Amino acid sequence: MELPADLPTGLAETMEPLVRRVLAGNPSPFTYTGTQTYVVGDGADVAVIDPGPADEAHIDAILATVGDARIAAIMCTHTHRDHSPAAAPLRARTGAPIIGCAPLILSDDGPRADEAFDTTYAPDRVLADGERVAGDGWTIEAVATPGHTSNHLCLALVESGALFTGDHVMGWSTSVISPPDGDMAAYMASLARLQERSDRIYYPAHGPAVENPAQLVRGMMGHRKQRERQVLRQLEGGPQTIPAMVPEMYKGIDSRLYGAAGRSVLAHLIDLETRGTVARDGELWRLAEPA
Length: 291
Prior knowledge:
Distance between the termini: 46 Å
Strand content: 15-25%
Oligomer: single chain
Largest sheet: 5 strands, mixed
Radius of gyration: 19 Å
CATH topology of the largest domain: Metallo-beta-lactamase, Chain A
Number of strands: 14
Order of helices and strands: EEEEHEHEEEEEEHEHHHEE
Number of helices: 6
CATH class of the largest domain: Alpha Beta
Number of domains: 2
CATH architecture of the largest domain: 4-Layer Sandwich
Shape: elongated
């Protein structure tokens, strides 16, 4: 994977008057240039969104960005290990509460974009859909968006119309939906929910800001529906295993990503199975018999 040159790792970038971004030094084929932590607020207190990996240099960079302000909330969109592990050490150093998604720990049964779940995440307050956290000149509202993970939240900055989308919507790549926790039906429903909103801009945890959110969400929903049609076309020729389907469906991608692609294919198949369209016999998947 070729990354953009001269990445500003550890430096605060001002995205808009209330939003600064700090890039962690954890680039990979799954995290792109790395995890982007956002500092929200320019007054006496701020919120820190997706503090990222428990890397001392990154935590120091967050604190340098915060400066003399008080951290009113350490907020996590979800608990994959490239998003939330810095929350605990940041709380230890500042006394700030961890507020955001619910804890979630599962065994890892396949390739993921983030090396499984953060076992250290212990929130002081879990936000339900629509609940808000407010500080000096800013208000953040939780928007429940399960799918990538069952505990995923997007976080809306009420004052500016920005939405921090975590891994739910990213401009550089689609999200990996990895069962058993990743759920394609829930993911599509969450995309449909965002389509109904009027957010001005998206700030994802990886990759550039999304300045045309409605257009991107429409395209992502169309992409997933196209993948579903690909799955069904694969099965029209007879029963198939997922490892046999992936190279045919994902032509041209790095073979190191086949495992992650297979998880998304599995998510589509489980969704289709729930709807009665496909069935499985052990590792073989097939079209369901007509009722």
